Amino acid sequence: MSQGRGRLDRREFMLGTLAALALPGLVIPAAARPAAGNASAGKTVLAVVEDVDPFQATVRAVGFLGGMNAFVPVGSRVLVKPNIGWDRRVEQAADTHPEVVRAVVEMCLESGAGDVVILDRTCNDARRTYVTSGIRGMVDALASKQVHLEYVRENRFTMVKIPRGAAIKQWPIYSYALEVDVIINVPVAKHHSISGLTLSMKNLMGLMGGNRGTIHSNIGQKLADVSTVIRPALNILDASRILLRNGPSGGRMEDVKVLNRVAACADPVALDAYGATLFGIRADRIPSIVAGYSMGLGEIDLSRVKMAGT
Predict the structure, then answer these.
(1) Spatial contact of 179 and 46, defined as CB atoms under 8 Å apart
(2) CA-CA distances (angstroms) from residue 57 to 63, 85, 218, 223?
(3) Which helix (H) or strand (E) is 171 found in, with range?
(4) What are the tens digits of pLDDT across the range 4-22?
């Protein structure tokens, strides 16, 4: 299994847990590792592909980063985390396009993943959102025993310590995100009335338990704090169609703009900085991007990022 990519390091995780036995129910994850794109890791590569077919756009974008086998080892357990929080149709751009998710899942299987789980802590009823978004139908059509679409259960959140947290020092995180070998983060690019935009770091909120209203206070820093302990191996931004206004739920077709783009990067800050440009917004105007950069989670300056793709 992989070490140090897209998950909490198992050895450090266990050592931290043993150290926390005096605090029942509290898990202390591994300290944050250098993010892709930091000076120690070499120059960030960000791939952008424009294609009317979101499946092909996703496959090609990941291909520019070396293919999915660069991120998913043989036999690994993979968590694919799209945004499927809203009871909206595909064309309404509130959820990740099912064809983008299908491409990710199929590439994971081709890379030899042993198990692939898809889930989100939804805002609307999960059974409706999974169906209306097209994710349920996509998974059913795959008909693979290795692919599972799971409903989040409130009793499966584990309190996790956040050693580097500035706004939060601990938070309940969905247990599966702590157990898998690889996390692939697959957000949709859209407006958000509180955080400014929903991009890769904001999409991790679907793995957070607790009161959503509490998260929304100082949300940019809290998302960066959580990003120090949940570290996806790869972030894939669905910008096949983006929600310009009235996010995160949307609903009006006049708020949707079709871009036919998919972007991929291991660095969440760089990917979010690029995502902001799709809305004509400077990266330093989005609190989570600024906080993530300040905490060393990635590169905010796209002039220092190697762009690949079309």
Answers:
(1) no
(2) 10, 23, 34, 28
(3) strand 170-174
(4) 444 444 333 333 333 333 3
Give 203's DSSP letter: H
Q: How far apart are CA 95 and CA 236, in angstroms?
A: 13
Q: What secondary structure letter does DSSP report for 295?
A: T
Would you place residue 178 in the very low, low, confident or very high pLDDT band (cuts 50, 70, 90)?
very high
Q: Let me know: does 154 contact 185? Beta carbons within 8 Å.
A: no
Q: Which residues pair with 32 in a beta bridge?
A: none
Name the burial class of residue 307, with classes exposed (0-12), middle (13-18) and buried (19+) by CB atoms within 10 angstroms of its CB: middle
Residue 29 above 50 pLDDT? no
Structure tokens at 206: 């679907």
**Can you tell me the distance from the alpha carbon of 265 to that of 89, in angstroms, rounded to the nearest whole number?**
27
Render pLDDT for 154-167 as a digit per residue (tens, 0 to 9): 999 999 999 999 99
Sort 221 into a burial class: Cβ within 10 Å, 0-12 / 13-18 / 19+.
buried
Computed over every residue of the chain, the mean pLDDT equals 88
State both tokens at 230.
């949940």
| 174 token code pair | 């969905």
Q: Are 205 and 223 in contact (CB under 8 A)?
A: yes
- Residues recorded for the chain: 310
